[in-house]
Amino acid sequence: MSTKSNATPTGPAKVDMGSEVVAVRSDKVVLNDTIGPAEIVIYNGKIVDILPKRSWVRPSGEKVLDVGDLVVMPGIIDPHVHICEPGHLACEGFTSVTKAAAAGGITTIVHMPLYSCPPTTTLTGLDSKLLSAKGQCHIDVAFWGGIIPGNQAELLPMLKAGVPGFQCFLMATGVEDFSRVCLQDLHVAMNELQDTECVLLFHAEQEPTQWTPVLDDTTEYSPFLDSHPDAMEVEATLTIAELCLQYKVPCHITHLSSAEALPIIKKARQNGAPITVETTHHYLSLSSECIPPGGTYYKCCPPIRKKSNQEKLWSALKEGQIDMVVSAHTPCSPELKDLSNGDFLKAQGGIASLQFGLPLFWTSAKSRGFSLHDLVRLLCKNPAVLSRLEDRKGSLGPGMDADLVIWNPDKEFEVNKEIIHHKHKLMPYLGFQLHGEVFATLVRGKLAYLNGKFAPKPQGDLLVTQRKMPTRVASPYY
Known about the structure:
This protein is α/β, with parallel strands linked by helices. The chain is about 25% helix and about 20% strand. It contains 11 helices and 19 strands. It has helices spanning about 95-105, 125-135, 155-160, 185-195, 220-225, 230-245, 260-270, 280-285, 305-320, 355-365, 370-385; strands spanning about 25-30, 35-45, 45-50, 65, 70-75, 75-80, 105-110, 140-145, 145, 165-170, 200-205, 250-255, 275-280, 325, 405-415, 435-445, 445-450, 455, 460-465. The longest helix has 18 residues, at about 230-245. The chain is globular.
């Protein structure tokens, strides 16, 4: 492993994969207000102290990871990851997705509720998910619940069992047992969830009031893009903002693709709505002008839009209007992407990118004036708050989990199939030249990934913590 400054990490060869290190040293540790030399002291999975260089007393050797001038920062948290287990292992399960995450410097993911069988819309479904994930995860995993029509009686039990919140869809999902919700469903659910600490996540596209069937060549991208106009996101965002203001239940808009919805979010915040929003690596890295005919591996919902829209998303990130950047990782087999026909309307949506989120973001962000502190805020701190994990993850300090990513922001590499750890290698990023290579990932002080190698057995935790319950009796919303 070489770095631009020719510094070579010392000590990694002496640390066994999967074992807990007692300290990590670097000349570039990203703390809340500074970047500089520090030693992170670790005991029993927690950070117990952070020492300036002049106070280093431990000899560099076994169990001390000295990484020279590689960047050390909090492990990345990705709160938007789809896994198809239990039920659809042909797509992707916990083992492969958490390996890919570890290789990408991600130490915690939050699993979305819909692409498993059963989905996480009942307490039984959550129990099934936990049983399936046990012993398979190379990093820590938390779980969102789901809201569908008629499951309001399941929400508080799932919340008490440890989900930090619930996802719902305002348009058809294409998943048989995860139906979209209507306005009445949302009133019932939000009335039920008032005075809890949970958050509601919305797929913010609303069914168009009028839509003319596409008659053009559906192997071209434009007919699919035209079928998901900006107005679908704008209308959904208006609905969410109104509900958020009415109930004051925290609401989060997932994978925003249209910059036209941003003024609505800004106004709602100014009026006191506890509303947050994320965008994704693919909306920031890809544009519709570059999508080839038949390139169905670019399909996702909401869709990838024009370059001019992408620039507006970057500006909103810079101005703090967008709170975080996530992968929205959705595994898909080549068969589900309809590669043989290349039909954008028939192919399943979703882009796999979990392993490459950090370098995808950094490659574009560094030339736009984003700092390492900005990166920590958008990829670590704010996702920790959304996921209700900020008391233990997302920043470096005594008492926090010793979740670390160690990486070289100057190292350039090419994305090729040989380095991909997702189950399926199909993605739009093959051949991309990216900056920012991950060297090591520590999860609660244990070496989960190091320079292409993984811990011999999964040691990730399933993060289910009992949540605050309302003290009042819910009354009808009408």
